[in-house]
Amino acid sequence: MQCVPRCLFELIWKAIYLIGFALPLSRAHQITAAAASDILACLMVVIFLPLIPWRYVFRNYVLARCSFFLFRVTSVLRAALHYLRLKSSSEKGFESPPVPRYTASVSN
């Protein structure tokens, strides 16, 4: 399972190469012998697609990243809502709670 990130990296860059470089060359009918050998080498990744444990990838990379991203977004939204509540309460004449100030204490 440790080589799954490398396999995904290989899959992604080869797909980008095939879509961004080989496909335009193919459409323009300008594939040379060197380009054909590169394209053939990149197309060999198709053989390895069924060997990638896709459930593991989805659970450990996609869902884990989504949960991390959602955690970050919700924490930012909570902070913004807290700020807006404090701002609206201070505009109504209510005192907002003091913001704790942390200072470094120096001990001799």
Q: How is this structure best described in words?
A:
The structure is a single chain. With 108 residues, the chain is mostly helical. Helix content is 71%, strand content 0%. It has helices at residues 4-27, 33-43, 45-48, 54-91. The longest helix is centred in the C-terminal third of the chain and has 38 residues, at 54-91. 0% of the residues are buried. The mean pLDDT is 78.
Quick one: how many beta strands? 0
Please compute the radius of gyration using only Cα atoms. 27 Å
Shape: elongated
Query: N- to C-terminal separation?
Result: 53 Å
- As a percent range, the share of helical residues equals over 70%
Q: How confident is the prediction overall: mean pLDDT?
A: 78
Biggest sheet features:
none
Give a topology summary.
Elements: H1 4-27, H2 33-43, H3 45-48, H4 54-91
Task: Offer a concise description of the structure.
This protein is mainly α and 108 residues long.
Keywords, separated by commas or semicolons:
108 residues, 4 helices, mainly alpha, single chain
